[in-house]
Design brief:
The complex is a heterotrimer of chains A (426), B (259) and C (303). Chain B is mainly α. Chain B has eleven helices and no strands. Chain B is globular, with a radius of gyration of 22 Å. Chain C is mostly helical and 303 residues long. The chains are: A alpha+beta (426), B mainly alpha (259), C mainly alpha (303). Chains in contact: A-B, A-C, B-C.
């Protein structure tokens, strides 16, 4: 009871506030029927405020299981046997270039497209027979899709009005959700009077007020400028932390996906190439495509000459003999692709000390130095004619990075531990 | 500061004089005492005759108003639904609908008038105010359709999807989202339809029957016998009426857009 | 633009049905009847007899009708040419002006009153006892009334007056969308003023010019009321001929055949316009709707 009082006074988190206000499910009516019986209390991450006493990130929402989903538009295969398990409360990203099928998959989950085969299960129940309005899923649309004839308040209130919720409830809930996205001051404005970032927040509040168990976000930041995108990304993440439901986030921007996701599915040409945490995806790409699509990389082919434990000796056309590592090494004689991330290559004017075991050393000429303040990027031509990308973070005043100039002869080196095999060709 | 091209300016100024001169002459002559062309003195007698002693004219005006309002209303309802269908939904005959909403706008009026006359006589429908109404709906509908469509094209399907996503049924989506969003287009479509209907002479001329004289038809029969000062007075009343209507409908549209 | 999936549940067909039915019955069916009638034999008291013949089309070629056709073409081409020559500089001036709304209102002045009253106004000005003759007589410039009305010149004058705004509006809206810094870019790259206009401005406003041309030419080609009221026998046009055949001579097949000619000329012109604007023929992709819709706006406002 003590905790509740505290919350009553200070809490402006919608789910909590609502629950405490009416003290029962009945007032919220069908709206709260989307809840799944989990305790409603949750906390802001970082422990600014506590709800229900526990200081933890609440896990709510539904798990979404996508099994063998297929969809084509005429000749074009948009989704080709796609299966993904998305866990309760996860911030899950579908990442891929445009046309890879990620938006189609999202629209299938929302109910705007019907797959030709496969199933989509929410908490074990198939949602495919349900029309969009009957699914416990709401969408934040790419272009916001705000109703131009309604004020910000009425846009957010839309679902409640449909359910003929009493005026008092509507008022309270809408202001809670406007508070969540920090738009209380703009409630009476029309969408046309808002900036892009504000529109996006209205769209988020409008989608959340229904208390969906899954929120679908279709490239929600793509219409915003770069700075605002950064800011909104952080806000999205904190909203996710606050309400704890499953987020499925579609984006073509690997930076966005890496920075907020719990897990990412990388897609291309209608297929899922890899599912994993941002770190797994970045550090251990499953295919050449993933390696190239996520971050920047140097990707080459080579032949395996010898294997001992996790250490693999390669013969490359570009750099001669080098050493890489692999957890599951292919046998000697295999043709493979291997990669080394640009920031993992050291660059300098002086040759590194006598090659240690597992250190790969290459010399070259700086073909293009790109200075960008905190770091520099170099394109380095090696004697064999290959070009390597190298990124050097600039440390303190003694750092020689900014002095590395066009046409300079430089030495590159990287550890075997940082270079790894991506695909085995044969 | 934009440069003022002097040649085009001169042409434009001359054009405006050319366009407004006939109306100015009408206004002037409506206050002329004599019936003939020469100015004999200021008088309001033609206005008096217009308002007090022109029962046939006012009956024609009544007919025009009935046809204009009813045909505009029907055309607006039908045309709006058609525009919504074409803009947002897939259905059989979609291309066919695009074509037959486009054709009536480009064909000369006489073709529509003649073909409807032959059609009505073919199916044995007696010419009356009803056939005028049918004809007016037919030529108004495409304008409403395209004006609403132009408005709808500013929005993509995602706002319908958003409504469905937020729990609205198809019917709720229509009433709560689609129609309010299209309202400026619907209103301007309706106003255009009223105007076109009041304005039409050629098509009405062919499809009208006994006792179904509209205002343009009345004016036609009056001026076939030369200058009629009552028509001068009528013109001035119409000009004033049009200005008031235009001004107020603009405000209505503004109000709708702002709301 | 995406559209909703066409499942059985979506009511697109339901919404479209009234338009489809109405226009099929009251627009397309009558048109089809005209096509059929034009190939039939005239009945004794109007109507048709069901024996197919090409007589109606042969009749169009005979000297009397030939004369009317030639006159129609002369009037339509002449009035359209004059209209365009006036409309292009007007549209240009409006597009470059800072007071576009006021200028638009001014161009719309004729629409403050009724189509027939606009024609009537010219009768009041040009008639034997009209304003102009009154003026000329009182100034002593002429001894007796000049016959301004009931000739081809009067028909063309009133037609130009009637359709001038229809031409100005699309031209204005096209030129208004033109980015005039392109002309500066052309000059910068070495084009003279004239060649900049020819090579950069005109190609970019071609769509508007064609629209204006057709908005003028098509209704003038099918004109009925203007030649009826201010024309004489020698300025008779095809529209009048149709009405006469229909109501006086009661030769419905001939009236239908002449209507077919007008319809074909119109359709040809519009196909030309769509082609020149790079749009597929009617009802194709979604973007193409924007153009006719904009035109409808102008046309609706104009009419």
């Amino acid at each position: 009871m003590e905790a509740r009082k505290l919350i009553d006074i200070s809490m402006n988190l919608p789910h909590c506030a609502l629950r405490i206000e009416d003290g029962s499910d009945s007032v919220a009516g069908p709206v709260s029927a989307t809840g799944n019986g989990l305790p409603r209390g949750r906390a802001l991450q970082g422990g600014i405020m506590e709800c229900g006493g526990a200081k933890k990130k609440t896990v709510k929402g539904s798990d979404v299981v996508i099994e063998h989903v297929r969809k084509s538009f005429g000749e074009f295969k948009a989704l080709d046997d796609v299966s993904i398990d998305i866990r309760k409360g996860e911030f899950f990203s579908l990442l891929g270039p445009s046309g890879c099928g990620k938006t189609t998959l999202l629209r299938i989950i929302a109910g705007f497209e019907a797959p030709e085969g496969g199933s989509v299960l929410l908490d074990g129940q198939s949602v495919l027979p349900l029309p969009p309005d009957a699914r416990r899923v709401n969408t934040v649309f790419q272009n916001y899709a705000l109703f131009p004839h309604l004020s910000v308040f009425e846009n957010v209130a839309f679902s409640l009005r449909l359910k003929r919720a009493p005026e008092a409830i509507v008022k309270a809930r809408v202001s809670d959700y406007l508070a969540l996205v920090e738009l209380q001051a703009h409630a009476s404005k029309k969408p046309s009077q808002l900036s892009g970032g504000q529109k996006q927040r209205v769209a988020i509040a409008r989608a959340l007020i229904n208390e969906p168990s899954v929120l679908l976000l279709d490239e929600p930041l793509s219409a915003l400028d770069a700075k605002l995108r950064q800011h909104m990304l952080i806000e999205l993440d904190s909203i996710h932390d606050k309400i704890g439901i499953t987020f499925i986030y579609v984006t073509h921007d690997q930076q966005e996906a890496l920075s907020v996701s719990d897990r990412i599915a990388v897609m291309n040409s209608g297929a899922v190439l890899q599912i994993g945490t941002p770190q797994e995806i970045y550090e251990a790409p499953a295919t050449d495509f993933v390696a190239r699509f996520i971050g920047e990389t140097n990707l080459y082919e080579a032949d395996v000459t010898a294997v001992s434990g996790e250490r693999v000796d390669l013969l490359t056309a570009e750099f001669g003999a080098i050493v890489v590592t692999a957890t599951n090494p292919p046998p000697a004689g295999s043709r493979i692709s291997w990669t080394i991330r640009p920031e993992k290559i050291r660059i300098g004017h002086t040759e590194p000390r006598a090659a240690r075991d597992g250190i790969n050393v290459v010399s070259g000429v700086v073909a293009e130095p790109i200075y960008s303040g905190f770091q520099s990027k170099f394109y380095v031509d090696t004697a064999s004619g290959a070009q390597l990308k190298v990124i050097k973070q600039h440390a303190d005043w003694s750092d020689e990075g900014p002095e590395l100039a066009w046409k300079d002869d430089v030495w590159l080196s990287f550890s075997a531990e940082d270079a790894y095999i991506v695909e085995v060709r044969r | 500061m934009k440069r003022r091209p002097s040649f085009s300016r001169a042409v434009f100024a001359t054009t405006i004089v050319f366009l407004s001169m006939p109306l100015l002459v009408l206004v002037l002559y409506s206050f002329n005492e004599s019936k003939s062309g020469s100015w004999t003195g200021f008088s309001l007698r033609w206005y008096a005759q217009l308002f007090l002693d022109s029962p046939r004219l006012w009956r024609a005006f009544g007919n025009s108003a009935i046809v204009a309002l009813s045909s505009a209303l029907v055309a607006t309802v039908i045309g709006t639904l058609g525009a919504i269908a074409v803009n947002w939904y897939r259905f059989p005959l979609r291309k066919y609908l695009r074509t037959i909403t486009f054709l009536p706008m480009i064909l000369p009026e006489i073709i529509i008038g003649v073909s409807l006359l032959i059609f009505f006589s073919g199916i044995g429908l007696r010419l009356s105010l009803f056939t005028v109404f049918v004809a007016h709906v037919s030529f108004n509908l495409p304008f409403v359709f395209l004006l609403v469509l132009a408005r709808l094209e500013e929005f993509d399907a995602s706002i319908i999807e958003a409504a469905r996503d937020l729990g609205a049924s198809e019917a709720q989506t229509l009433v709560r989202v689609i129609i309010p969003v299209s309202m400026p287009g619907i209103v301007s479509g309706f106003l255009t339809a009223v105007t076109l209907s009041l304005e039409d002479f050629v098509i009405t001329f062919f499809v009208t029957g006994p006792g179904a004289t509209t205002l343009p038809l009345y004016v036609y029969s009056a001026i076939r016998f030369g200058v009629s000062p009552v028509i001068n007075a009528l013109s001035v009343v119409m000009i004033v009426g049009t200005i008031i209507l235009t001004w107020s409908s603009r405000n209505v549209l503004k109000y709708i857009a702002a709301k | 633009m995406t559209r909703l999936p066409g499942t059985a549940k979506t009511p697109g067909g339901l919404y479209a049905a009234p338009s489809l039915v109405w226009l099929s019955v009251f627009f397309l069916a009558p048109l089809a009847i005209i096509v059929a009638y034009s190939f039939l034999t005239p009945g004794a008291l109007g109507g048709v007899e069901w024996s197919p013949t090409l007589d109606a089309y042969r009749a169009i070629a005979n000297p009397t009708f030939g004369k009317v056709t030639v006159n129609t073409i002369i009037v339509a081409m002449g009035a359209t040419a004059i209209t365009m020559l006036i409309a292009i500089p007007c549209g240009y001036y409006m597009a470059r002006s800072e007071h576009q709304n006021i200028l638009l209102m001014l161009v719309m002045i004729p629409f403050w009153t009724n189509f027939l009253i606009r024609i009537y106004a010219w009768i009041a000005i040009l008639g034997n006892e009209g304003f102009l003759n009154d003026l000329l007589l009182s100034l002593g410039l002429v001894d007796q009334s000049v016959r301004f009305l009931y000739n081809r010149g009067a028909v063309m004058l009133v037609l130009v007056y009637t359709y001038l705004p229809y031409a100005i509006l699309p031209l204005y809206s096209t030129i208004d969308k033109f980015d005039f810094s392109l002309l500066e870019a052309a000059r910068d790259l070495g084009a003279s003023k004239m060649s900049a206009i020819n090579r950069v401005l005109l190609p970019n406003i071609r769509g508007g010019v064609l629209t204006a041309f057709l908005f003028t030419f098509i209704p003038i080609f099918g004109a009925y009321a203007v030649p009826l009221l201010v024309g004489g026998t020698e300025s008779y046009m095809l529209g009048n001929l149709i009405a006469d055949e229909l109501t006086k001579s009661r030769d419905w097949p001939l009236a239908s055949a002449i209507s077919m000619v007008i319809t074909l000329v119109t359709t040809l012109g519009v196909l030309l316009l769509l082609r020149a604007n790079g749009t597929s023929v009617l009802g194709g992709d979604d973007h193409e709707a924007a153009e006719p819709a904009g035109e409808a706006d102008a046309l609706g406002a104009a009419r």
